[in-house]
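BUG-353 | component: ligand-complex export | severity: low

The export step for KG4 jobs runs without errors, but we want the raw record kept on the ticket for reference. Input record follows.
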Amino acid sequence: GDDLVVLGIETSCDDTAASVVRSNGEILSQVVSSQADLLAQYGGVAPKMAEEAHLRVIDQVVQEALDKANLTEKDLSAVAVTIGPGLSLCLRVGVRKARKIAGSFNLPIIGVHHMEAHALVARLIERELQFPFMALLISGGHNLLILASDLGQYIQLGTTIDDAIGEAYDKTAKWLGLDMRRSGGPAVEELAREGDAESVKFSIPMKQYKDCNFSYAGLKTQVRLAIESRNINAGIPISSASFQDRSSRADIAASFQRVAVLHLEERCERAIEWALKLEPSIKHLVVSGGVASNQYVRARLDQVVQKNNLQLVCPPPSLCTDNGVMVAWTGIEHFRMGRFDPPPSASEPEDSL
Ligand code: KG4
Ligand code: ZN
């Protein structure tokens, strides 16, 4: 029948996440263990260290997801796991765990694409959301505009030619000396509320290119130079983050955010035009990925979408940032269509991946 219960495992970057989801859309559990403390200490993700952190918690995270759902492995219909894109050392921790469970309990296994999961989770929270639809996926590593024609059929309308918007938020937070115990995005968003977004003149990336691609490396450099020149004027070391008063840092945060998001708005506007020519029945733009949890980003994109008579679908923040729910749900979508791998042999040696 169609009553499926799927465990989803996500270890592609710095969060270890697991979740159990039912095919009727019920989220039975959601567990995330973040490496935020490690990140703050070292100022970035080091693959080997991230792998070790995943290894330390993976068993516990999965067990907790099952316990909170009040289930054991025997109750599952299948196991879904992120197989890419991401750090391969990290991905393998999740894949090994998924294959171990699937092998021991004779369960089918579904390999999930991380970005597809960010997009499809919107269909869990908005059951009205039918193909075709558009999606803007914005995270630390990716900046994608896609047209989703059908399950597994995606046309890429635009991608970043260098950095993703989340990377620009993270570096801006670091150079402004903001608290890095969590990721930089929320810290910049918070500080930006106090600032004057028109005070620092950053230029909008790629204005002259009439396509749907993104670039955030140049804006990152503009922000760094703005901070450095203020340090020079204040007579303190050029790369010091301890300069200026809070209000002038807030001005930089707000001005950065305005231009970073204007770039998204402009590209979405054009992508909608392109996509409607290909698929006139499109009614929705999905915005997902970590940066989509930003309230300013949501509000601005909502304006663009409304102007074009479309609807914005934006998952709640806990489903925008990396999570196991989106992996389990994407697994369900594929499993329903008969797309899965048979249970791995239980005797498979652990290091065969
Ligand atoms: O999707 P995600 O959790 O992981 C990746 O697949 O990369 O996205 C993480 C990114 C980070 O760059 C983080 O700073 C950004 O999402 N982010 C935000 C906010 N919350 C998370 N950026 C701006 N504003 C936020 N509120
Ligand atoms: Zn992600």
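Assignee comment: Attached the raw record above. Residues 319 and 326 are 7 Å apart (CA to CA).
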